[in-house]
Write a structure and sequence with these properties.
With 418 residues, this protein is an alpha/beta fold. 43% of the residues lie in helices and 15% in strands. Helix 6 runs antiparallel to helix 7 and helix 9 (244-264) crosses helix 13 (357-369). Mean pLDDT is 89; it is low at 1-5 and 408-418.
Length: 418
């Protein structure tokens, strides 16, 4: 009930990443959270691109698709350097915001016409923050799937030269300023983890954290179910293989970790499974023991065949759905601290954590060769996701938090504790 009315609240959801249960992390997260809102509210989905998931369409009252094209990339090294300089010196916002300005311009008139008719407007990603109007009578919510300033700071540590480090230093500052504006301007900010929430509110005015809510990522524990661990020394890495952090992690693992694993366990194989592999990832498939499986309809068969799943990310905030899917499938997980951040897991009980190549190789080898260790990690990981990360529960709590301030209610949302 909103404002004394028995009518369902009306929610406008705006995104430039179509919700989809079968695509990448952001697509999957939105698909489940939109469904949660659709159970208690009348939701209109305004999306750049096409919604191909019939289940998503059925979960909302209306879908409006705005045609779009993939963002163009630089054609050569000179164009890349010129773009970098423009982003560092002339662009007003962080990279992801500056590069998507044309998409926001296409949406702005539609949003200005539609938004006043809704109780709540939810926008996904920092890219859509600029659609926030100066004057509004309804509640505006933004969900941030990662913290851009923190990602840029991590990339700066890995920068191969002074020019890249200088560009990333400027990016950190730009992203931090923009994030502070977002936290102060929106009625509610949704973070993916408590760690992200702390990063977003660091240095803000007192009271700012009260408008920030943590809504974790989750997993469908019916779709991802445990099965017997295989004896074969099979390693799997899943994810969008054209996405920068995954690309970096894949190359680092294949060049620095996998050869050490093969030295101890020569029969070990690595399957890299996911969407749109970058050319660098496809090239890794030419190495002995490594196979690339692109654009598969489901990662479930590869998880079932795996003895261990690796999450070797060196860049990233938020939480990784690939880790949750592996644990839900009863597969031991070995990852970096960044790759497994935000899940509240206990190292050595739910997963093994290693940040250097030699330690990670030892951890992977231990799981491949020690069945009791592998089975203990698999059992504990599954128990963790069942307790904390079931999508249906998270989506319902998300809907409750988002709608708490609709219809003129004065109290703030409660934080979702995990």
């Amino acid at each position: 009930m909103i404002g004394g009315s028995t009518e369902r609240p009306r929610v406008l959801w705006i995104t430039d990443e179509p919700p989809d249960h079968s695509l990448g992390g952001g697509n999957i997260r939105q698909a489940h959270l939109v469904a949660g809102l659709g159970r208690v509210a009348e939701v209109c989905l305004l999306v750049m691109g096409e919604v191909a998931d019939a289940q998503v369409r059925e979960s909302v009252a209306r879908v409006i698709e705005v045609p779009t094209r993939p963002l163009p990339g630089p054609r050569n090294k000179t164009a890349r350097r010129l773009l970098d300089l423009w982003l560092a010196l002339a662009a007003r916002g962080p990279w992801e915001v500056a590069l998507t300005a044309r998409r926001r311009r296409r949406l702005r008139r539609i949003v200005a016409h539609m938004a006043p008719g809704y109780d709540v407007v939810v926008v996904s990603h920092l890219t859509m923050a600029g659609l926030l109007p100066r004057h509004r009578a309804n509640q505006w919510v933004i969900q941030l799937h990662h913290v851009s300033s923190a990602k840029a700071a991590q990339e700066r540590v890995l920068a191969p030269g002074r020019r890249q480090a200088w560009i990333l230093t400027r990016e950190v500052a730009k992203a931090r300023r923009f994030e502070r504006w977002v936290v102060g301007a929106f009625d509610m900010v949704i973070a993916v983890s408590d760690e992200d929430a702390d990063l977003l509110t660091a240095g803000t005015a007192p009271g700012m954290p009260s408008r920030l809510v943590t809504v974790p990522n989750g997993v469908d524990t019916d779709r991802y179910r445990p099965s017997s661990l295989p004896e074969e020394a099979r390693i799997v890495m899943t994810g969008s293989l054209g996405y920068g952090p995954n690309l970096d992690g894949a190359v680092w693992f294949c060049e620095n970790v996998f050869p050490l694993v093969r030295r101890h366990t020569p029969e070990a194989t690595l399957a890299m499974v996911g969407r749109s592999p970058a050319p660098q990832v496809r090239a890794l498939g030419e190495r002995e023991g490594i196979d690339i499986h692109a654009d598969v309809p489901s990662v479930v068969p590869w998880l079932m065949q795996a003895r261990v799943t690796v999450v070797p990310l060196r860049v990233g905030t938020g939480t990784r759905l690939k880790a949750l899917e592996a644990m839900a499938s009863g597969r031991p997980v070995v990852g970096t601290a960044i790759g497994l951040a935000g899940l509240g897991l206990i190292e050595g009980e739910h997963a093994l954590v290693a940040d250097d190549a030699a330690t990670m190789a030892d951890a992977v080898t231990a799981v491949l060769t020690d069945r009791s260790l592998a089975e203990r990690l698999a059992k504990s990981g599954r128990a963790l996701v069942e307790e904390r990360f079931e999508w249906s529960v998270i989506a319902d709590e998300f809907a409750e938090a988002v709608l708490a301030g609709a219809g003129g209610k004065q109290h703030g949302p409660r934080a979702i504790q995990r």
